[in-house]
Design goal:
134 residues; alpha+beta; 3-stranded mixed β-sheet; 30% strand
C-alpha cells in the first residue's frame, strides 16, 4: 500500500518544518491528484498513526485535485471521469499513471496523445502551527 509510504514522507517533511520553525503543528493540508487514485481513508489513518510529538493535535485535510487533460492532436481540454474506466483499466492507471495513455482517449478526436494538466501527484500544500515556548 503506497498510502503508508506517502504518509511517511508527508509526516517526515512536516516534522522537519516543525523542528526548523519551532512549531507545534495545528493543520496540514495535502493535495492529491485524482490520477494517483489514493485511498483517502487509508492515507488519513496512516497519517494519524504516524504523527509525531510536533503534531499531536494536528488536523489533516486531504484535497483532491481533479484530472484535467489536453489532447495534443486537436487541443481539446476535458475533465476525466475515472469512474468511466473499467476495473482493470483503473487498476493499471492506479499503479502506473503513465498507462493512462493506453486506456484514455480524447473525447473529441479519439487520440491517446494527451497531456495531464492537473490531477497528478501528491503535495504538502500547507503546514500551519503555533510557535512553541522557549
Amino acid at each position: 500500500m503506497h498510502e503508508w509510504a506517502l504518509a511517511e514522507g508527508i509526516i517526515s517533511k512536516a516534522d522537519r518544518i516543525a523542528i526548523e520553525n519551532n512549531l507545534e503543528i495545528t493543520d496540514i493540508v495535502i493535495q492529491i491528484g485524482e490520477l494517483q487514485q489514493i485511498d483517502d481513508e487509508i492515507l488519513q489513518f496512516a497519517l494519524e498513526q504516524l504523527r509525531t510529538d510536533n503534531m499531536k493535535k494536528a488536523r489533516f485535510t486531504l484535497e483532491t485535485i481533479k484530472a484535467k487533460l489536453k489532447c495534443r492532436a486537436c487541443g481539446e481540454e476535458w475533465r476525466l471521469d475515472l469512474s468511466s474506466l473499467d476495473e482493470e483499466s483503473s487498476e493499471a492507471v492506479h499503479f502506473v499513471p503513465e498507462m493512462a495513455h493506453v486506456y484514455i482517449k480524447c473525447p473529441r478526436c479519439g487520440s491517446p496523445d494527451f497531456e495531464v494538466l492537473e490531477g497528478r501527484g501528491v503535495w504538502l500544500a500547507s503546514v500551519r502551527g503555533v510557535r512553541k515556548d522557549g
